Amino acid sequence: MSAPGPLPDTAPKQVTFYMATDDLKRAKAAYTGTSGQEMDRSWSDFVSRAVLKEVERREGLYNEGGRYQGGTRNLAPGRKIRL
């Protein structure tokens, strides 16, 4: 019997990012207008699910549906990532 792999890290981590003011207003309005119907636990839950939806779309489109490796380095705010 092989040893089990590491457990996923599901502990919440604070995330800070910049977003255009009009887009933020639109997102907040959609959240407050639908959080009851969508059963959002919080604003953080809403944002997290929105980000993961885009992550899954990109994994499906560019990585045959698999998860990308990495994701541990800090990203520079407002600048494109250098490869």
Automatic annotation (TrEMBL):
Record-given protein name: Centromere-binding protein ParB C-terminal domain-containing protein
Region (Disordered): 63-83
Superkingdom of source: Bacteria
Taxonomic lineage: Bacteria, Bacillati, Actinomycetota, Actinomycetes, Micrococcales
Organism: Arthrobacter terrae
